[in-house]
What does this fold into?
Amino acid sequence: MNAATLTTGRAPFAIAFLLSLVAVSPAHADTLTLMWDPNPEQVNGYVVYAGAQSSSLTQRSDVGNTTTFTLTTAVAGQQYCFAVAAYFDPATEGPRSTAVCGYSNQYPTLSNPGNQSSTAGQAVSLQLVGSDPDGQAISYTASGLPPGLTLGSSNGFISGVATTAGSYSVTARVSDGVLTSAAQSFTWSVASSSTADTTSPSVSITGPTSAATYTSSASSVLLSGTATDNVGVSAVTWANDRGGSGTATGTTGWSAPSIALQVGTNVITVTARDAAGNRGTDVLTVTYTAPDTTAPTVSITGPTTSSTFSTSATSLTISGIAADAVGVTQVSWVNDLGGAGTASGTTSWSVTGIDLKYNTNTITVTARDAAGNQSTDVLAVTYTPADTSAPTVSIVGPTTAASYATTSSVVTLGGTAADNLGVTAVSWANDRGGSGFSSGTTSWSVPSVSLQSGTNVITVAAQDAAGNRGTDVLTVSYTPPDTTAPTVSIASPTTSSTFTASSGSLTIGGTAADAVGVTQVGWVNDRGGAGTASGTTTWSVPSVALQTGTNVITVTARDASGNQSTDALTVTYSAPVPEPSPSIVLSADFYSSGRWKKVLLRWTLVSGRYVDIYRDGVRLTRTNNDGSYTDAPRGVGPFSYYVCVSETTVCSNTVVVSQ
It folds into this structure.
């Protein structure tokens, strides 16, 4: 089976096959939905296994011929592991998929802000801090707030002016829309406005330093710190003596994310205020040194001050000068045809032994300073040596050998070529007809060379700019493919095209032949079931399950080239008719919930290893004679059932169930 998908309430994530049930609280339940790809072979249903761990999948659920399963009673934060198996019938269940695990929705959390104090008639604010481990959006609720204070449900911000003195018990929670956090309770004391607050808050700058001074090369600074007050800090503000001011984020723990600096000394004063207007301050002196943004200069002076140069030498020496307002830290070079390095010296620099490649070599010299500023100068060097060496060329695909055999009418060639100066073209020619040029040169390919039946001598030639050539040869033997289909015949239980069976299973056999060789004989019943026969030229299938009525069994023979042919046998099977006075007593219970339906069948045990289950007169399955079976019918019903001892006419009474 292929991979499956598990969804936990909302967001899907990849998993294999799954399910488990544990004790849950309906008030705090979540939903897990499992989906998987259908089995590539025709099957009659799937079974989902589940448990708390992948090594212990203790619960089994037959979900019928569906590819989804939903667990609606998952405990929040609980791990669930699942695996899935397919079956033709419950007695022939296939192997399970790989077990996979995932978690259901987790509870959001809310931090307790601690007890709060304020004065009646004065503005006050408090930020509640909640989070959701699954990253879902949360909403806030609170009860017991002092009169005059309100809570923003989306942001958790409490603000307002308390109107009545007293002590208030506040309970706050957060919810992700499915689950609600544990309650956080705290006391909010509101003092009478007649009780004057004369105590100033204290405030401390702790970031970027707790020292009184700080040096920066950045044009802005992030400040952070703490503030306290006997009643409560209402706001923290900042001001730069070089310009700019604002309000920090937070109070007892505050931050000012981006304070603009001027070159030189910036005295930044942070002020904490309480609701009574008392103030406390702290000061940080920031010295800002603007970064170096001036690029250095660089010039190539040797072997020429011109922008171009021609040579027949294989290597080159260059030199020049560089300058910067602060100082040059490095001079480097790079050749666009290969090679790079660092020059000797800085303000006066040189590079020896630069390897040149045929044609134009663009050499770029770069000067850098300590601040990372850089500038460049470029010299285009044309290198033209005398060329007397022929290129080399090698065929490496479809083989590195000198010969190759194929049944395809075309062949793809690939390989490599090299030259002391450069390969300009790679061409090919077939002595049986056809020629052309490859794609690429040093690494080349020819996607489609047409072949003639028999021997094809293909010559690949590499050429350089001077006309020098090198060759490689591949001899390809082409044998046209096998297009003749095999033959297949059903010889038993009859050579006729039809057969009447009195048993629920049938043995068939026959012969098959092919000009090259039969590789496989397979069979399929149009009423369900398929498989591979034993043998090829003489083959047999020991047991084909039949359904009541007409079963068309098709046998297919295949050869190695994919050619195939078929023979068919139409088998009519009449199921045994229940005896008027059944010796098996059958009862049934019907269960349903939502879309699913289950029918639990129970019967008295009689002699016989297996029984056949019939629904609405059609054999449903063959199962162990253990006294019970669970069916998952589709449709609206009613449904009629009876059971028979396999291969006998001993059958039960008929029971009818409906929704």
In short: The two ends are 33 Å apart (CA to CA). The domain at 392-478 is CATH 2.60.40.10 (Immunoglobulin-like). The longest strand covers residues 264-274. The CA atoms of residues 110 and 166 lie 25 Å apart.
